[in-house]
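Run log, item B.
One chain of 166 residues. Sequence copied directly from the ordering sheet:
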Amino acid sequence: MTSRRTFVRGLAVTAVGASLAGCSSGGGSSGGDSDTTESAGDDGGSGDGGSGDEWTQTSTVEMTDELAYEPKQIQVEAGTTITFENVGSIGHTVTAYEDKIPDGADYFASGEFDSEQAAKDGYGESQGGNVPAGESYEVTLETTGTYEYYCIPHEMNGMVGSIKVV
C-alpha cells in the first residue's frame, strides 16, 4: 500500500497546485448529508476506486476543495431540481458534456450557457459560470437518461459526475 499512498499524496499536491492556479477564492463552509446509496448495476465508471455502479438518491451535490463532486453519481426522478452547493473555498463550474446527455434533453451549465463550447469560452474569458465558495447552482432535469458533467478548471483532476434521471 505504500505505493498507493505515495500516488495519493502526489495527487493531493497536484490538486492543491491546480486549485490555486485558476480559481476564485472566498470563505466557505463544509458539511454534508448522508444519503442512501443504491446499486443500479448500470454503466458509469468512476475513477474513485468504486465499482462504478453505485447511484446515490439525492438532489444535492457538493463541490469540494478536494476537487470533487460529492456524491459523484446521483439518481433523481424526472422533474427534480438538482442543487450544486460549493462547500469549499475555491470556485467550480457545473458543465454538461454536450455529447453525454440524453437525446432531446436541454443543455445545462452554470452561467446558463447554451452549449459546452460557450461555457468553455465564457470561463476562459472571464471565469463565466464560476460558482464561488458558499454559492450554488440549480438545474431541473426533465428528460430521462444519464447526464455527465464536469468542472471546467478541474476536469483534468477528475472532477466529473453523473446524474441518472428516471
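Observations after the first pass:
- The first strand starts at residue 37 and ends at 39.
- Strands lie at 37-39, 54-57, 60-63, 69-70, 73-76, 80-86, 95-96, 136-141, 145-150, 160-165.
Flagged for discussion on Thursday.
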